[in-house]
Design a protein that fits this description.
The protein has 20 helices and 12 strands. By secondary structure, the chain is an alpha+beta fold.
């Protein structure tokens, strides 16, 4: 078996002549890799690029055709569904009249009003009854929109004679055929020349024709829905079975008495015939050779006509788009692909340059990662992409960073526990000067935690870390009492006005002390919350508290929580000058203070956890604490 040196020598012998034949012997490794790999890669790449772009252009065109056809069919289906929903309301009314013939006129008008209000495209709804004889009065209660209101009337002969005049299709056609029918679109003079279409369905009793139930659809509302469903440059038209335009990019063409064939050039009529053939698809509209009619200038160039039937009415929905506009996104995508492939080629060539210095870069990245970790970024990790020596070293650095982070987090937790213990000790030291407080701090902490936790359930902006901070810093609410003389702090009787003012100063003493500490040592949320609680926990929601007379949201949320907990504990705890108040009485006082002494939101949270407050209060009372 050859030794590694022999294999190396054999390779050197075989490679040498090749390099010499290619004239690359004098080049360095990087230059040789470029010449041998990059140049053939570029040639192959350019060939592939041409094939891909040709295929992509054809595919993009097919995608545009298919997507636009699908959008057109979807819009036609939505229109069909809208018409069918309105028709269903008329059918439901007819069915009800067949099964419930004794509806009063008031009930019937209420039913018609409901039908109109169900869909903003419905302008009116009516029920027309077959008269006993041609000369009898006509009964046709009708509900219709009037501004923002829905009014009702009777369409009698004083309005128009729909029974004897064959012009009114909504009565004549279902009466003669015995089947539901959509009328041709018409301009309703009574509604202000609004373009309407009516669906009419007959109803019977005892096997005899008794009348029709109708709904009037306001076509402009349907057009608005189509416009909202179509985006981009697409225009659209809606045509009747005979080719009249119900909707058109040019308003003057709508129900003008002319069909699309009257205005379309001869070479475009075949496309419109295909559209009115009853199926879905698309056709090509050739470019116009002459001057287009006013309003149709945009369609001078070659365009696409996509169409789909609206089966309920027998109409056709047609979307029209100039071919250049339709294919513009596809062309842009093709250019993007070409640009992306060109960038890819540049990256390939760049990667060839990079291979020669790969090891150097990997070592540089490793050194940079170690520097980041050394400066405190313990979340930084190296990507381990190999199992060689550098890969093992990278894995070792990652392990070291994880261990350092775990150790740092454990130290942070230890510091946090130590800080909380020190805070509690300081607070207990301050409280120790008040002979009657007992386990006040312990209870306050529990009450504050109950309220803060309940608020986090109600307000997603608050979290468990916030609740924990409020609970820990609540212990410092009376830290300022260290600055109050014993003669005032421990006075068993009533305080004078001057003594009360000096006692109230414990809020500013504590708050100013904590603010000074925060300014000097740590601008963190912990000390800020502690200072807010010390300053504001005697403020009242209505502004009658102290020391600043703050009101409402101007009082910090943490202090508003401590205010409720502090008052509840004071009420339910025994003092040398008063007995402990029962929980129910204390809860009543807290509740009555909502909006006056306390924030209503905190009181609501208190009510939600009142049972837990009672358990804590009574358990401490039983323990004599």
């Amino acid at each position: 078996m050859p030794t590694p040196k022999q294999r190396h020598d054999r390779l050197t012998v075989h490679r040498g002549p090749i390099a010499r034949r290619l004239g690359l012997s004098h080049l360095g490794i990087r230059a040789k890799m470029i010449a041998i790999i990059a140049l053939p890669t570029v040639a192959v790449f350019l060939l592939v690029l041409g094939l891909v772009l040709a295929r992509l252009s054809a595919t993009n065109r097919q995608d545009v055709e298919r997507n636009t056809a699908e959008r057109t069919a979807a819009v036609a289906a939505r229109l069909d569904a809208a018409f069918d929903r309105a028709a269903a309301a008329a059918r439901a009314t007819a069915s009800l009249l067949e099964t419930t013939p004794d509806l009063t006129d008031q009930q019937l008008r209420a039913l018609l009003r409901t039908t109109v209000l169900q869909d903003d495209a419905v302008y009116g709804a009516a029920v027309a009854f077959e008269p006993a004889s041609p000369s009898d009065p006509l009964a046709a209660p009708y509900a219709y929109r009037s501004g923002d209101d829905v009014r009702t009337m009777n369409i009698g002969r004083n309005v128009y004679d729909w029974f004897n005049d064959p012009h009114w299709e909504w009565w004549r056609r279902p009466r003669e055929s015995g089947t539901p029918a959509w009328t041709e679109p018409y301009f309703d003079r009574g509604a202000g020349e609004v373009l309407m279409v009516t669906y009419s369905t007959p109803f019977r009793r005892d096997g005899r024709f008794r009348g029709v139930a109708t709904v009037d659809i306001q076509v402009s509302r349907i057009r608005e829905r189509v416009a909202a469903a179509l985006v981009g440059v697409t225009d659209f038209a809606i045509l009747t079975r005979g080719g009249e335009l119900v909707s058109s990019p040019r308003e003057s063409d709508v129900m003008s008495g002319k069909t699309v064939f009257d205005s379309a050039p001869s070479d475009r009529k075949e496309a419109w015939r295909a559209a009115l053939g009853g199926g879905s698809g698309f056709a090509l509209l050739p470019a116009l050779t002459g001057s287009p009619q006013r309003g149709w200038e945009r369609w001078r160039e070659e365009s696409w006509l996509f169409y789909a039937p609206i089966r309920s009415t027998g109409w056709v929905f047609a979307a029209m788009v100039p071919q250049s506009e339709a294919l513009a996104p596809a062309r842009a995508r093709t250019l993007e692909v070409a640009a992306a492939l060109t960038v890819a080629l540049a990256l390939i060539i760049a990667s060839i340059f990079a291979v020669s210095s790969l090891l150097t870069r990997r070592v540089s990245r490793l050194a940079a990662a170690v520097r980041r970790i050394a400066t405190g970024n313990l979340d930084h990790r190296l990507a381990v992409t190999s199992f060689d020596e550098l890969g093992h070293l990278s894995h070792g650095v990652n392990t070291m960073a994880r261990d350092l982070k775990r150790h740092a987090e454990e130290m942070a937790r230890t510091r946090s526990r130590s800080r909380e213990a020190m805070i509690f000790a300081l607070a207990r030291l301050a409280e120790s000067r008040d002979d009657d407080t007992g386990t006040h701090l312990e209870r306050i902490g529990i009450y504050v935690e109950l309220l803060a936790t309940e608020l986090t359930r109600r307000d997603p902006a608050l979290d468990a870390d916030w609740a924990s901070t409020v609970r820990a810093t609540a212990a410092l609410h009376d830290i300022g009492k260290v600055g109050i003389p014993d003669a005032i702090l421990k006075k068993p009787g009533r305080l004078t006005d001057d003594e009360r003012r000096r006692m109230q100063a414990h809020t500013t003493i504590g708050g100013d002390t904590l603010i000074a500490v925060r300014r000097e040592w740590s601008e963190d949320d912990f000390l800020r919350t502690a200072a807010e609680i010390a300053l504001h926990h005697h403020e009242k929601w209505d502004g009658t508290g102290y020391p600043f007379g703050l009101a409402g949201e101007d009082i910090s949320l943490s202090a508003r929580i401590v205010a409720v907990a502090d008052v509840y504990d004071a009420l339910t705890s025994r003092r040398v000058y008063k007995p402990a108040m029962p929980h129910a009485e204390a809860a009543r006082i807290i509740t009555e203070g909502s909006g006056h002494h306390f924030d209503p939101r905190i009181v609501a949270a208190f009510i939600a956890v009142e049972a837990e407050f009672r358990v804590v209060s009574e358990s401490h009372a039983r323990a004599g604490r």
